[in-house]
Design goal:
- The protein has one helix spanning 2-19, and strands at residues 21-28, 39-44, 58-59, 61-63, 66-68, 71-75, 78-81, 90-96, 99-106, 114-116, 120-126, 133-139, 144-146, 152-158, 161-168, 176-182, 187-193, 202-204, 210-212.
- By secondary structure, it is mostly beta strands.
- The chain has two domains: 21-49 and 141-205, Immunoglobulins (Immunoglobulin-like); 51-140, Cupredoxins -  blue copper proteins (Immunoglobulin-like, Sandwich).
Length: 214
């Protein structure tokens, strides 16, 4: 009887794996160029899907007086640490509605782990270095991925059902979205055209100062 139960469980697990679908999202601008650092995510429309934050904190590193990564997608409840690998101090902060916080000047490992407990975009900055800007995008769905240099991202493990696909980028005015249906073992590619606002970040000049980058 135990062997039969085990076989049934194994068959059910294999069936679940076969049923998982993948959405490949390809982001391009109106000229056809790839758009990296976009967060693509899907929200289940038939029933809510709970999220489970990772047990270990996610790290956003500071080195060469920049944040790395530039964009970090996380689920609600994720803890984030900000190790400083530079030989100068940094003062990390955010005034975004989704998460307001401040870590005073420090070097090395940050003792503060910030919990991102509300969905939405969070802009990171450094009070000392104006050009240091990065983003945390907090999600209430476990199904998401960030586009790479080729503008592509794979959202995997999707059970069959109806979903809302949305794409977010720091320079996108709002969000871009559409509804889609995942069939059993169904894979789909969604090409999403996004129009980005000009990049107004301040960048350091070659002499170590700063200049406006447009």
């Amino acid at each position: 009887m135990r062997r039969v139960t085990t076989l049934i469980l194994l068959a059910a697990s294999a069936s679940a794996l076969r049923a998982a679908g993948t959405v490949r999202v390809v982001t391009k601008d109106p000229t056809g160029l790839a758009v990296p650092d976009a967060v693509a995510y899907v929200v289940a429309l038939d029933a809510p899907v709970p999220v489970q934050p990772p047990a270990e904190p996610v790290a956003i590193t500071q080195h060469d007086q920049m944040f790395d990564p530039y964009v970090t997608p996380v689920v609600v409840g994720t803890s984030v640490v900000f190790p400083n690998r530079d030989n100068v101090q940094h003062h990390v902060y955010s005034v975004s509605p989704a998460k307001k916080f401040e870590i005073p000047l420090y070097k090395g490992e940050s003792t503060a782990a910030i919990v991102f407990d509300h969905p939405g975009p969070v802009t990171l900055g450094c009070n000392i270095h104006d050009w240091m800007v990065a983003y945390v995008f907090v999600l209430s769905t476990p199904y998401f991925a960030k586009t790479g240099a080729d503008g592509a991202a794979d959202i995997t493990g999707l059970p069959p059902g109806r979903y809302r696909l949305e794409v977010w980028h720091p320079r996108l005015a709002g969000k871009v979205g559409r509804e889609l249906t995942i069939a059993e073992s169904g894979d789909t590619t969604q090409v999403v055209s996004v129009t980005l606002r000009p990049d107004r970040r301040i960048r350091r000049a070659p002499d170590g100062g700063s200049s406006d980058y447009k």
